[in-house]
Amino acid sequence: MTLFRYREDRIPVLLFLCLFALDLTVYFLASNWWLPILWFGALIIPKGWVCSWNHNHQHLPMFRHALPNRLLEVVFGFQTGITSHAWFLHHVVGHHKNYLDQEKDESRWKRDDGTTMGEVEYSLKTALTAYPRAFRVGLEQPQHRKALRTFVGMAALQVVLLGVLFWHNWYNALFVFLLPMAVSLYVTVWATYFHHVGLETDDHNQASYNILHRGYNLMTGNLGYHTAHHSRHGLHWSKLPELHAQLARDIPAHLYRQPGIPFVWRESEAKLVLTDEQVEALASSAVSPPPKRAAAA
């Protein structure tokens, strides 16, 4: 019996579990004041990358069965601050359905008066409202009440486990778990600002920025192929480059960006315009024609 849906997920899951084992090692063994702080600072960016994989997992669970998925989501919760089914409700059945409508989008980048939020304003507002918005999506969509119950139950379990860690050693729990959870949630939301900001359109091919940087996509599970992701949000991350190639001629050449730090230190997140030759090179790498766009969840 196969445990994983896709064999490509085996190494990433092993790495997440090893990282969590290191977190626990520091939590239980660190006896000085500086090691937990050093660990917190050193792991902020890697845990930000884990957020992308948590996002992928809540679009398409990595395991075939519920129990290992829930256990993995506890690990993800401690690493990213995003608990089981929070991404599913807020992002998969919320944002993906509404991202073309800035009055409804759970990750909206417009203010109520129609002006564009700045990075910090968007990040703070979206991070602070993430869990209430996820809960509201579950309440307003009866077909997702089961997901809502899982979200509430697993969030409660996460709080209890975190409480036990604080009871045992509040100082280590603060720097190894709670602060990384809060900062990772903020960093994740901040990164999403650059996915759609300023793109007000009814055309899905013109509604997302894309990042082609190989290192960025390696560490984020191909999050840079964002138009393809919105075109078929249930498609496994390993198949997004091929779908992007199929869509390349339909994606405007100016809808590309540089990745952020640490991949690019100068002009981080800067907009790029592909040449006609670059677009054709992408399109020619496709091995099959583009599929019809699936309806959003």
- Name the overall outline: globular
Total domains, how many? 2
- Rg on CA atoms, Å: 19 Å
Count of individual beta strands: 2
Strand content: under 5%
Spatially, the strands of the biggest sheet line up as 1-2
Low-confidence stretches: none
Structural class from helices and strands? mainly alpha
Strand-and-helix sequence, N→C? HHHHHHHHHHEEH
Instruction: Give the helix proportion (percent range).
Output: 55-70%
Q: Largest beta sheet, briefly? A: 2 strands, antiparallel
Helical segment tally? 11
Mean pLDDT comes to: 94
Distance between the termini: 29 Å
Organism: Cystobacter ferrugineus
Keywords: Membrane, Transmembrane, Transmembrane helix
Pfam families: FA_desaturase
Transmembrane segments: 12-30, 147-167, 173-194
SSE map:
Blueprint lengths: L9 H20 L4 H26 L6 H15 L5 H13 L20 H22 L4 H24 L1 H27 L17 H7 L5 H6 L8 H8 L8 E2 L13 E2 L3 H9 L13
